[in-house]
């Protein structure tokens, strides 16, 4: 996967993140995004899903996505 595709996916994810209202929705979106990005970069998709899911769940607690 090219860097342009990864960058476009990241931008789309951040743009759509404001549409998600609950921690569960943000967690699921973060897990999916984390898995895709980790796999595209040659990393472990499961680890990416865990990290992305955690970031999605806790992003409003730290004031990133309000």
UniProtKB/TrEMBL annotation:
**Endpoints of the signal sequence:** 1-17
Q: Does the keyword Signal apply?
A: yes
Keyword list (alphabetical) reads: Signal
List the protein's name. Uncharacterized protein
């Amino acid at each position: 996967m090219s860097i342009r595709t990864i960058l476009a996916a990241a931008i789309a994810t951040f743009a759509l993140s404001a549409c998600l209202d609950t921690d569960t929705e943000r967690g699921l979106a973060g897990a999916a995004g984390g898995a895709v990005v980790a796999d595209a970069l040659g990393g472990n998709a499961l680890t990416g899903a865990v990290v992305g899911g955690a970031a999605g769940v806790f992003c409003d607690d730290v004031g990133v996505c309000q």
